[in-house]
Amino acid sequence: xxxxxxxxxxxxxxxxxxxxxxxxxxxxxxxxxxxxxxxxxxxxxxxxxxxxxxxxxxxxxxxxxxxxxxxxxxxxxxxxxxxxxxxxxxxxxxxxxxxxxxxxxxxxxxxxxxxxxxxxxxxxxxxxxxxxxxxxxxxxxxxxxxxxxxxxxxxxxxxxxxxxxxxxxxxxxxxxxxxxxxxxxxxxxxxxxxxxxxxxxxxxxxxxxxxxxxxxxxxxxxxxxxxxxxxxxxxxxxxxxxxxxxxxxxxxxxxxxxxxxxxxxxxxxxxxxxxxxxxxxxxxxxxxxxxxxxxxxxxxxxxxxxxxxxxxxxxxxxxxxxxxxxxxxxxxxxxxxxxxxxxxxxxxxxxxxxxxxxxxxxxxxxxxxxxxxxxxxxxxxxxxxxxxxxxxxxxxxxxxxxxxxxxxxxxx
Amino acid sequence: xxxxxxxxxxxxxxxxxxxxxxxxxxxxxxxxxxxxxxxxxxxxxxxxxxxxxxxxxxxxxxxxxxxxxxxxxxxxxxxxxxxxxxxxxxxxxxxxxxxxxxxxxxxxxxxxxxxxxxxxxxxxxxxxxxxxxxxxxxxxxxxxxxxxxxxxxxxxxxxxxxxxxxxxxx
Amino acid sequence: xxxxxxxxxxxxxxxxxxxxxxxxxxxxxxxxxxxxxxxxxxxxxxxxxxxxxxxxxxxxxxxxxxxxxxxxxxxxxxxxxxxxxxxxxxxxxxxxxxxxxxxxxxxxxxxxxxxxxxxxxxxxxxxxxxxxxxxxxxxxxxxxxxxxxxxxxxxxxxxxxxxxxxxxxxxxxxxxxxxxxxxxxxxxxxxxxxxxxxxxxxxxxxxxxxxxxxxxxxxxxxxxxxxxxxxxxxxxxxxxxxxxxxxxxxxxxxxxxxxxxxxxxxxxxxxxxxxxxxxxxxxxxxxxxxxxxxxxxxxxxxxxxxxxxxxxxxxxxxxxxxxxxxxxxxxxxxxxxxxxxxxxxxxxxxxxxxxxxxxxxxxxxxxxxxxxxxxxxxxxx
Lengths: 412, 170, 381
What we know:
The complex is a heterotrimer. Chain A is built from 14 helices and no strands. Chain A has helices spanning 11-49, 65-75, 86-102, 121-142, 146-177, 182-188, 203-219, 231-234, 244-268, 278-310, 314-320, 328-347, 353-375, 383-411. By secondary structure, chain A is mostly helical. Chain B is of the alpha+beta class. Helices cover 32% and strands 22% of the residues of chain B. Chain B has four helices and five strands; from the N terminus they run ααβαββββα. In chain B, strands 2-3-5 form a three-stranded antiparallel sheet, with helices on one face. In chain B, strands 1-4 form a two-stranded antiparallel sheet. In chain B, a hairpin with a 6-residue loop joins β2 and β3 (94-107). In chain B, 22% of the residues are buried. The model of chain B has no long low-confidence stretch (mean pLDDT 88). Chain C contains 15 helices and eight strands. Chain C has helices spanning 2-13, 58-61, 71-75, 82-97, 103-132, 136-156, 178-201, 204-210, 218-224, 229-232, 240-243, 269-293, 345-356, 362-371, 376-380, and strands at 18-22, 34-40, 43-50, 165-166, 169-170, 312-320, 323-331, 339-343. By secondary structure, chain C is of the alpha+beta class. In chain C, β7 and β8 form a beta hairpin. In chain C, the strands form three sheets. Chain C has a three-stranded antiparallel sheet. In chain C, strands 6-7-8 form a three-stranded antiparallel sheet. Chain C has a two-stranded antiparallel ribbon with strand order 4-5. Chain C is globular. In chain C, 49% of the residues lie in helices and 12% in strands. Chain C has a single domain, classed as Orthogonal Bundle (Cytochrome-c3 Hydrogenase, chain B). Chains in contact: A-B, A-C, B-C.
C-alpha cells in the first residue's frame, strides 16, 4: 500500500500524519460528542430537578437538539465588538479549548488505551490547566467591555488560587504510589474496591478526594464557584461578547474541562478502569440510559419512516413528531436489563479494552453528573468568600491530608 | 479554633440538606403541560377572558360596549330600522331591537381583555370565548369584523320597511 | 446626609473610579432599571438609580378614561400583585362617592389580596436566590405561583391582569369547587415552605452571601419612607392591616412577622427574606380563616353608572406585597378623574439603595437590589 504514495513522503511524515489523524478522530468522535452530550444531559437533569421536562422534542427524546444547536451556532453572525483587540479576541477560545483537550492525551482509558503514557503525567496536567487561565484573561480583556474584564479577572484569581489545593491533593496519590505516571497509579489500584486510593489512608484520602473535587469545581468555573460567569450579574462574564461558534468553543471547552477533571479524579482516587464490584452500579446506569435511548430511537423509526414515505420533508418529520411517553414498566425493564448486562460483564471477567474504556467513562461521567447536581442546588460564593475558602480552609486541610497520609503509610 | 471546625461541619451538613431536597424532586412527576398535544382550551375555566365573540343575532346596537371600552377598540355603525324583538340571554325576556348594525369591528390588537364591554351588554351578545391563540401574519387581520352579509341584508331590509312605514303614515 | 459624604468621597477619588452601567437590559434588575455604578475595582463607591424606562403614563391615562374604565389600568401598575392595586383604587373611588361595600365583597377582596400577596412574595423569594446563584428555588416558586394563577383564572378569568374588583364590590363570586382547589394548593404550598428551610435558609453559602448585608435601622427606614416587609425587617411592626384596618381585617386573627436579626444584623437582607417567608405563611393561614368565615350576601354595592363628583379628593391605601400602595384621586365634576397619583413602596425602597450599597462588592449590590423587592412597573408607573 505504501508504494502508491509519492516518494517525497518519508515514513516519519506518514507516521506523523497517521498520528494526527488518530488524535483528530479521538477528539472529534469521542471527546466533543461527550462534551456535547453533557449539554443535553445537563438540560434534562436540571429539568428533572425542577419538576419540568427538559428538551425532548427534537428527535427521539430530544437528542437531536445538540445537532440543531451546533448548526445554529455555525449560522450566527461572527461579531466582534468595536474597539476590541481582534487577534486576541479570536485567539482566546482556542487557548481554552487547547488547555482542556490536550490534557486528555495522558489519561489512560484502558490497559493499553492511552495516547501518551507520560512519566510525569500529573505535572503535564497541572501545566495545561493553567493555559485555560490565559485564555480566559485574553477573552475578558479583548472584549472591550468592563463587565467581561471583571469576570475574567475574577476567574483568573480563582483558578490560580485553586490550583494550589489541586496540586497538593494530587500529591496524595503520588505519595502513596510513588510515581507520577497515571498508568502506574491505575495499576496500583487493581483488585477491587478496597484497593482504591480513596480508601487507602483512612479519612485522609477521603478528605483529599473531597478537597480535590472542590478545587476541580473551582477550576472549571462551576457553581458554587461560577462567579466569573455569574449569569445574574455579568450576563455571561468573560464570554459575553462572543457569539456563534466562538462561544460554542468556550462552551464545549467548559464541558470537556469538566469531563477532564472527573477523569483525573477517577484515575487517581476511584480506581480508574480496574475491575471491581462497584462498576456494576455505574456501568448499569450508563447501560440503562444507552439502552433507553436506543430503544426510543428504534421505536420512533416507524413513525419517521411512514411520515417520510408520505412525502414530508426530513426537517418537518424531525421537528413535528410529538414525543411519546413511555410507561414506568418500560423504564424498569430497561433498568433491569441494563443491570443484568452489567453483572454479566463483571461475572465473566470481560476485560477487553473497550469495556474498560466504557467502565472508565461511566465512572467519570457519574462525577460529571454530581457536578451538575451541585450546580442546580447551590447558590454561588462571593469572590472574597471563595478566596477565604481556598486559602484558609482548603490549603491547610490539604496539608493535613498529606501529612496524615505520610503518617498512615509509615504506621502501616 | 472550635469555631473554625464548627463552621466547616455546619456548612457541609447544610449543603447536603439542600442537595437532598433537589434529589427528592428528581423522582417526583413533572408539572409541565405539553401544550400543542394537550388541549389547553378545554382545560380553561368558563370565566376565562379569551378573545371576544359577538353574536350578531342578539346584538341590539345599544352601543353600551362601545361607550364603556377604555381603549376605544370597538367601532359600531348602525341604521334605524323596523322594530323587532330578540330574546336576551341575560334576562330571557324579549328585548326590542330598533337599530341594526352595519359594521361591528373590534381591534383585538388593542383590546386588553378587561371584560368591561361584556358586563353592560343587555342581551349577552358580546362575550368572551376560551380562545387565546390569536396570532396572524398580517396586522390588518387582527381587526375582527363580526357583521356578516346576512346582517347587512337584514339591516337594509328593516330600514326599507321602516321608510315604507313612514311613507305610509305621512 | 450620607449622600453628600458619598459625593465628596467620589470627587476626591476622581478618576481612580471605574464607571459601570448596570443598564436597563440586565438579567438581574427586576424589570427595566438602570444603575450607574462607580466602583473601585470590585468595591462600590456610588450607586445612582435611573428610572423611567418603564414609564407608561398610567397616571395621565387616568385623566382620559372614566373612573370605572381606569380599573383595568391599575392592574398594570404592579402586575406582580395586581389585586392590591385594584383594591386600593376601588377604595379611593368609594371614598369619593361614599359608597358602602357589602360584607361578602369585603371578604372576597381580602381573599384575593392574600392570594396575591403569596403570589408576589413567591416571585420575590424566587428571584432572590436566582440572583445569588441557586436557580432551582426560582422554578419551584414559579410552580407554586402557577397554581395561584390557575385559582385566579377560575375566579376572575385572567392570570395576570385580573380586573377583579369593581367600584362598590367585586366582579365575580366564587366559582364552584373553589374551596377544594384552594385547600389542595395550600397543601402543596406548605410542603414548598418547609422545603425552603434546608434549601436556602439553613444553607451556609446563602447565609454567607446574605447576612450582615444592606442593613439599615428603623429610624433610617422611617426617614426614607420605606414601607412593607423592608420596614418590618428592621424590627418595626407597622402593617396597615393592623394599624389602619380596612376590609374586615379586624375580624381575622393573624400576627405581623417582624425581623429579629437571628442570623446577622437586624434589618439586613436575611431578615427581609425571612419576613417575606413568614408573611406567606401568615397569608396562607389568613386564607383558611377567610374561607371558613365567608358570609353570604351581595358582591356589589350600589354605585352610580357615571361617577360625577364636584371638587373632592380621596386617598386610600392597602397593604400590598411591597408595602403601602396608595391612590390619590381628585375629581372635579367630570366623569374622568382630574388627577390620579399613585404612591408605591418600591420607589422609596429604591431611594434607599445609594445609602446602603456603599463599600459592598458588585455581587452584593445585586443581592441588595433583589432583597428590597424592587418591581420596576411600580417605580415608573
